[in-house]
From TrEMBL:
Polar residues bias: start-end ranges: 234-244
Single GO term (MF): 2 iron, 2 sulfur cluster binding
Name of the protein described by the UniProt record: NADH-quinone oxidoreductase subunit E
PANTHER family referenced in this protein's UniProt entry, alphabetically: NADH DEHYDROGENASE [UBIQUINONE] FLAVOPROTEIN 2, MITOCHONDRIAL, NADH DEHYDROGENASE UBIQUINONE FLAVOPROTEIN 2, MITOCHONDRIAL
Gene for this chain: nuoE
Region annotation (Disordered) ranges: 205-244
Domain of life: Bacteria
Signal peptide span: none
Family under the similarity heading: Belongs to the complex I 24 kDa subunit family.
InterPro entries: NuoE-like (IPR002023), NuoE_dom (IPR042128), NuoE_N (IPR041921), Thioredoxin-like_sf (IPR036249)
Tagged with keyword Iron: yes
Organism: Streptomyces smaragdinus
Length: 244
């Protein structure tokens, strides 16, 4: 009698992608992997790639990454569950994140987060019935001088209020065109994931409007360099700030 012995870590059982989907993803994945000296270094962008296919990192996506990078599914899962940018379940077309870190919270972030949950009838990490909007609280996204900040698919909406945040999610659900405070027009979560995987951002004006340091940030820089002795309100207009 012979027994089949499998050495190494067990792999997560998962169905494969349909043949045409796998072929397309594999071609994209090979392009990404070729950018790195070692294949395993491509894991983060590959997780974004599989997320762009189904809207979250599925077991199939985990197995796909493991196969191409010669990793175990345990190793891939460890990374996918460490970073909050990777979804573990399906969500809305628009991921609305309200910063509730210290400064944003004090400036109204906590109130905005609670108001949006009540307005949409969802809890943290939940999605509206129409599949349009998911809401979550997020940690600092380096825009403290524009607190309170709301992000939609990682695009900035600065100096928000309860009413402006409600209008924002209502417009998203209604299909209205919504523009972030800085950057190009919004795209869906799946489209954003593909951009984060390292593929060209095809949005019109995306490069020119990629967003940069605003007047409040630049005022802080001037103060740090001793260029001005006057503190300018972070809500001042660009013209007022430049005048300082």
């Amino acid at each position: 009698m012979t027994a089949e012995v499998s050495l190494g870590m067990p792999q997560l059982p998962a169905p494969d992608y349909p043949a045409e989907v796998r072929a397309r993803l594999e071609a994209d994945a090979r392009e990404v992997i070729a950018r790195y000296p070692g294949s395993r270094s491509a894991l983060l962008p590959l997780l974004h790639l599989v997320q762009s296919e189904e809207g979250y990192v599925t077991r199939t996506g985990v197995r796909f990454c493991a196969d191409l990078l010669e990793l175990t599914t345990a190793e891939v899962t460890a990374v996918a569950t460490f970073y909050s940018m990777y979804r573990r379940k399906n969500g809305g077309d628009y991921q609305v994140g309200v910063c509730t870190n210290t400064l944003c919270a004090v400036m109204g972030g906590d109130a905005i987060f609670e108001a949006l949950q009540e307005h949409l009838g969802v809890g943290n990490g939940e999605t509206t019935d129409d599949g349009k909007v998911s809401v979550e609280h997020i940690e600092c996204n380096a825009a403290c001088d524009y607190a309170p900040v709301v992000m939609v698919n990682w695009e900035f909406f600065d100096n928000q209020t309860i009413e402006s945040a409600k209008k924002l999610v209502d417009d998203l659900r209604a299909g209205a065109e919504v523009a972030p405070t800085r950057g190009a027009r919004l795209c869906t979560f799946k489209e954003t994931s593909r951009i984060l995987a390292g593929f060209p951002d095809q949005r019109e004006g995306a490069v020119a409007e990629s967003g940069g340091a605003g007047p409040a940030s630049l005022t802080g820089l001037k103060l740090a360099k001793g260029g001005t002795g006057k503190v300018v309100s972070p809500r001042s207009s660009a013209a007022e700030t430049e005048g300082e």
